[in-house]
Structure formats: structure tokens, C-alpha cells
TrEMBL record:
Domain of life: Bacteria
Family: Belongs to the CoaE family.
UniProt enzyme class: transferase
Protein role: Catalyzes the phosphorylation of the 3'-hydroxyl group of dephosphocoenzyme A to form coenzyme A.
Protein name: Dephospho-CoA kinase
Keywords in alphabetical order: ATP-binding, Coenzyme A biosynthesis, Cytoplasm, Kinase, Nucleotide-binding, Transferase
Positions of ATP binding: G13, S14, G15, K16, T17, T18
PANTHER family from the UniProt entry: BIFUNCTIONAL COENZYME A SYNTHASE-RELATED (PTHR10695:SF46), DEPHOSPHO-COA KINASE-RELATED (PTHR10695)
Lineage: Bacteria, Pseudomonadati, Pseudomonadota, Gammaproteobacteria, Alteromonadales
Gene: coaE
Matching Pfam families: CoaE
Catalytic reactions on record: 3'-dephospho-CoA + ATP = ADP + CoA + H(+)
Gene3D superfamilies for this protein: P-loop containing nucleotide triphosphate hydrolases
Length: 201
């Protein structure tokens, strides 16, 4: 069991997944909130059944899976609907993440959580790591990666903690505006640092 948990976060398009994968290449277990969030709304799951009951059958695709873009439209245009969805899914996601951390066999574990601070999940970890890029770069990367409009990106960024807030709460920060080679060096340095912290915890 991993006793030491690092919470990895950053705004949309910041490169959290890239950083997480670099830790995985060093042999560290990842617990990814996004993957767990997909699992709790998988076809036939309790989460999906409750979503359909609340939002209606048009949130389903023809194959019975969740229509994510339809759901996204509903929750980002109405704050109360987003709150309802969060109240349904967050307890399920939190329970599953903690179980996976318990089951991890590495010296420490990286918990990848896009809304680490927003959802108070930083209370579950021993240390927080923020992947940081400029808002302009964040917008460019997200638009090209997700084929979304600038307006949608602004809404998503607006629903997340501000850059200043994330940076003020972070124990560690990785600037991800440079080359991948520089990023690898930063991750390796932090990896060695976390191994020391984990051995002393």
C-alpha cells in the first residue's frame, strides 16, 4: 500500500496527462480521477441510471453510453445542474480513488485530479503538484486538442480555480511551457524528492 499520495492538478490543456505519464514511466502508480469518473458513468452503472433519470434520455447515445457533449452543454449552461451532478458523482469518485491508492504497490502514488482544489480533494493527499501554463497557451492547446470553441474553453476555465489560486495552494509547481526534455528533468527531480518524502513518512 502507498502511504504517500501526491495530488497532481492543473487547468484544462496544461499537460497534466503528459506529466502523469512521465511519473508512470518511472514506475509510479497513477490514480486518475478522469478514468474513474468515466467508470462511474459507464453503460449500465448506477451513476448513469441516475443521470438519465435526472436529465432525460437525450443524455444517452444510441448505443446506451453517455452523450458527454450533451451533458456538458446542460451543466455548463446551468450552475445548479453542475452542482447536482457533482453531488452525485464526487462521493463515488472519491471512494474509488482512495481504494485505488490503498491498493497501489509503489513507494508513493500520483492522484491525478483536474479539480483537486475546487472539490476539496487536496485534503486527501500529502502533497500537491500543479502543472502550470499561461492562459493563452491553455486556450490554444485545448481548442486544437478537443475541437471546442474559444467560448467553451473560456467557460471551462471559468469554472475552475484561477491560476493564482492554484499556484498559491500548490506545494510544488511544474512550468510546462517548454520542451518535453525539460519536462522530463523536472519530473525526475520531483520523483526523487517524493521518494525521500515517502520513505520518511
Amino acid at each position: 500500500m502507498a502511504d504517500f499520495i501526491v495530488g497532481l492538478t492543473g487547468g484544462i490543456g496544461s499537460g497534466k496527462t503528459t506529466v502523469a505519464n512521465l511519473f508512470a514511466e518511472l514506475g509510479i502508480s497513477l490514480v486518475d480521477a478522469d478514468i474513474i469518473a468515466r467508470d462511474v458513468v459507464a453503460k449500465g452503472s448506477t451513476g448513469l441510471i441516475k443521470i438519465v433519470e435526472h436529465f432525460g434520455a437525450d443524455t444517452l447515445l444510441a448505443d446506451g453510453n453517455l452523450d458527454r457533449s450533451k451533458l456538458r452543454d446542460k451543466i455548463f449552461s446551468d450552475d445548479s445542474e453542475r452542482v447536482w451532478l457533482n453531488n452525485l458523482l464526487h462521493p463515488m469518485i472519491r471512494e474509488s480513488m482512495l481504494q485505488q491508492c490503498k491498493d497501489a504497490q509503489t513507494d508513493y502514488v500520483i492522484m491525478v485530479v483536474p479539480l483537486l482544489f475546487e472539490n476539496g480533494l487536496d485534503r486527501l493527499v500529502d502533497r500537491t503538484l500543479v502543472v502550470d501554463i499561461s492562459p493563452k497557451l491553455q486556450q490554444q492547446r485545448t481548442i486544437s486538442r478537443d475541437a471546442v470553441t474559444a467560448e467553451q474553453v473560456k467557460n471551462i476555465i471559468g469554472s475552475q480555480a484561477s491560476r493564482a489560486e492554484k499556484l498559491s495552494k500548490a506545494d510544488d509547481v511544474i512550468d510546462n511551457q517548454g520542451e518535453i526534455s525539460a519536462l522530463k528533468c523536472k519530473v525526475l527531480a520531483l520523483h526523487n524528492f517524493y521518494l525521500k518524502l515517502a520513505s520518511n513518512s
